Amino acid sequence: MGAASVVVLLLALVLGLPQIIEQLTSIPLIAESLGTLNSPVHMPQWMNGILVVAAIAASTERALRLRYSRILDGGILDGDA
Fold first, then answer.
1. Residue 13's closest CA among 46, 44, 45, 58?
2. Model pTM?
3. H or E element: which one contains 34?
């Protein structure tokens, strides 16, 4: 299940990021300073919607399966080290 979530997140990144950058570079102020990007990926809105929902579900699954970590959860700051 975890591997499938990672695949979905990577797919969402690869397919979604160029489209987001294209939208950002179409803003006149950014286009004047950086230029514009024409994304090689053009998906219909319904497919983008499915991609967003799948990415949200996959990221939620990854977040809920996180394990306790001494470093991340502050255990190392309690004087245990």
1. 58
2. 0.67
3. helix 28-34
